[in-house]
Design a protein that fits this description.
The chain has 156 residues and is of the alpha/beta class. It has a single domain (2-148), classed as 3-Layer(aba) Sandwich (Alpha/beta knot), CATH 3.40.1280.10. Helix content is 41%, strand content 22%. It contains five helices and five strands, in the order βαβαβαβαβα. The chain has helices at 14-24, 49-62, 82-95, 111-116, 130-148; strands at residues 2-8, 32-38, 69-79, 99-103, 119-122. The chain has a five-stranded parallel β-sheet with strand order 2-1-4-3-5. Helix 1 runs parallel beside helix 5 (130-148) and helix 3 packs across helix 5. It is globular, with a radius of gyration of 15 Å.
Length: 156
């Protein structure tokens, strides 16, 4: 199974890339995490946030395969503990399809992305900077995977 992190934004600070890849590279081939960066839409005075979100949303939807299980990162979504995320990962593996995690831009995810999602996941009720979300996601996925294989990384 491949987990695709499809995120709006490019040219992240060096610390973000180092932290993200330090966790992504620890995952095994049968539960790999791959980043797909979507360029943010150009913000102009003559457009509304919905127009920017729609442009970004179309690019996100192009990166999703028809067979992907899609999880939208959404503040309105369900919160998952590490144990719950581990159960989700196990279910994803049993489904036999790849997973696409969607992270919107500064204005959020387009309605089309939310409607395509099979599930909605909230990392926190807090608003986080998008670069930090990548790091938190990578660590959370690595930690949850470690639970599924009884790896000593996660301690309860």
């Amino acid at each position: 199974m491949k987990i695709k992190l499809i995120a709006v934004g490019t040219k992240m600070p060096d610390w973000v890339e180092k932290a993200y890849y330090s966790y992504a590279q620890r995952l095994p081939r049968d539960c790999s995490l791959e980043l797909f960066e979507i360029p943010a839409a150009k913000r102009t005075k003559n457009q509304l946030a919905n127009q920017w979100m729609e442009k970004e949303g179309l690019q996100i939807l192009k990166a999703i395969e028809p067979s992907d299980w899609v999880v939208a990162l959404d503040v309105q979504g369900k919160s998952w503990s590490t144990q719950q995320l581990a159960k989700e990962i196990t279910q994803w593996q049993l489904k036999g399809s790849n997973v696409a995690l969607l992270v919107g831009g500064p204005d959020g995810l387009a309605a089309g992305c939310l409607s395509r999602a099979n599930a909605r996941w909230s990392l926190s009720a807090l608003t986080m900077p998008h670069p930090l979300v990548r790091v938190v996601l990578a660590e959370a996925i690595y930690r949850a995977w470690s639970v599924t294989v009884n790896h000593p990384y996660h301690r309860e």
